[in-house]
Write a structure and sequence with these properties.
The structure is a homodimer. By secondary structure, chain A is of the alpha+beta class. In chain A, the strands form two sheets. Chain A has a six-stranded antiparallel sheet, with helices on both faces. A two-stranded antiparallel ribbon of chain A has the order 1-2. Chain A binds a DNA duplex through helix 1 and helix 3. Chains A, B: This is IclR family transcriptional regulator. Chains A, B: Pfam families: HTH_IclR, IclR_C.
DNA sequence: ACATGTTGTGCGTTATGCGTACAATTGTCA
DNA sequence: TGACAATTGTACGCATAACGCACAACATGT
């Protein structure tokens, strides 16, 4: 065995560090602030100012960033990257119509989500039929994993042994007064979700909002949110059945096989 | 002026070539094929296989690509980049609800698009209220600029002098029998669109589909597609008025100022 | 069987990106 | 208005990190 250089000092020859640093620049544009200056980019990425500058200028050159004076902001071009994923998985053709159809029948918004790190990542979303309520999320939005029905249903699909570590580590941010803070309690809801095939959360992420989610594929879940009280107990049951029907239909279409 | 090195051999010291090459790797995943091998990536990007390999492995390391044996495919993580743009421009909070509302009132699908190079780039889309039809497009999808109502309305918003060059250069691919192929004719429709504030195309991109579009902001347009004959002449008028109302409401919200 | 096309991976070379340093600019308090 | 502080833009020497040739192992097809 050749003395593989220590992984701390020596870089992996198969990884392009410059590329990774550039992606880090792109990643700091998470939308929380509409535009960033070079110094802010450098600070947020932890890179040298000159390095951040090269990364940002390269992104401008490629058309992903716009430079207005000293402010850099994203261009719509980043959407084309997402478009590649959505097209590859036939989201527009095979998934979205199904979501729309069931959402119209139920009168609620239906969301398809997958997992990205310790967040639930929204892949697609139907619009609420007559729903005046909208939470402002879009494809690409990320929700917490531990305190949303979507996230817990995703966790329920994971291997049980990997769960405890995942739950225990997180700082367990408390979003509402009703947010569960005990890791054991959260693990219990996840276990129950795995058992039942669905999960319901009540106001743990946004107060007064009840979330309900079911599994579709190994790493894909379906969910809806409704204001508490808007639908009675049987209303939730109807939504649950609707989500399960929707999930079945998506499975039949077989478009979500690869994550 | 210092003798700036010739731009052909000497790289711009402010552009990170490795980063640009890596982005090129990411860009070839446009969704036309669900997965790519290293050789395909190298061929499509024109890079050396070793270079393409480093780029792809870096993307795997960062979580944007998945490697299954010899096949690389996109992960949902690319959506987070799009999410940054959508959140920065308040698409989910300020735009999507407006689109949904007007779409439900009109019974048609409404699409918000911007421009990316010589394509119209879909930013957001409402679902048709009772609409069984869906064209399989999603945010991030790209439509031709010359033969769609969205594209021509975008061109109508450009400076007139830059138009002729833009139209004349393109190979003028013919999508349907009704596609206009004469640059002068297309330029005339664009000029008419600028004059009237809206544009209607009939089956030039997809046969039997009528497209209608209006301008919202300097580089943003709104459009709908309906099957020919589904709505009579007054139906199209109603849709046009609805789109214009929708555009006004979006302008009032003022969320689309920066492209 | 050979021929053709993959794929993975060393490794020497040198181009390339790094970051310090300085200059120019903006903002802020007296 | 001053002078100070904190940004920003840019250049350039140096070391490193990316390049791409080359080879070997494997697959595919004629």
């Amino acid at each position: 065995m050749p003395p593989t250089a220590d992984s701390s000092t020596q870089q992996d020859r198969n990884i392009a560090a410059t590329f990774a640093k550039g992606m880090a620049v792109l990643e700091v544009f998470d939308g929380q602030v509409p535009a960033l200056t070079l110094s802010e980019i450098a600070r947020l990425t932890g890179q040298d100012r000159a390095t951040a500058r090269r990364g940002a200028l390269t992104l401008v050159h490629l058309g992903y960033l716009r430079q207005d004076g000293r402010h850099f902001s994203l261009t719509p071009r980043v959407l084309t990257l997402a478009g590649g994923f959505l097209r590859a998985h036939q989201i527009g053709r095979q998934v979205q119509p199904v979501l729309n159809h069931h959402a119209a029948a139920l009168g609620v918004e239906i969301t398809l989500a997958s997992r990205d790190g310790d967040h639930a990542l929204l892949l697609a979303q139907s619009t609420a039929h007559g729903g005046p309520i909208s939470y402002g999320f879009t494809p690409g939005s990320r929700l917490p994993l531990l305190h949303t029905s979507l996230g817990r249903m995703l966790l329920a699909g994971e291997a049980p042994d990997r769960l405890e570590g995942r739950i225990g580590e997180a700082p367990l941010t408390r979003f509402t007064e009703q947010s569960l803070t005990d890791p054991a309690q959260i693990a219990a809801t996840v276990a129950a979700a795995r058992q039942a095939g669905y999960v319901i959360t009540d106001g743990e992420f946004e107060p007064g909002i009840v979330g309900i989610a079911v599994a579709v594929a190994p790493h894909a879940v379906l969910g809806s949110s409704v204001p508490r009280g808007r639908d009675g107990a049987d209303g939730l049951d109807a939504i649950l059945r609707g989500l399960q029907n929707c999930a079945s239909e998506l499975r039949l279409a077989g478009a979500l096989s690869g994550l």
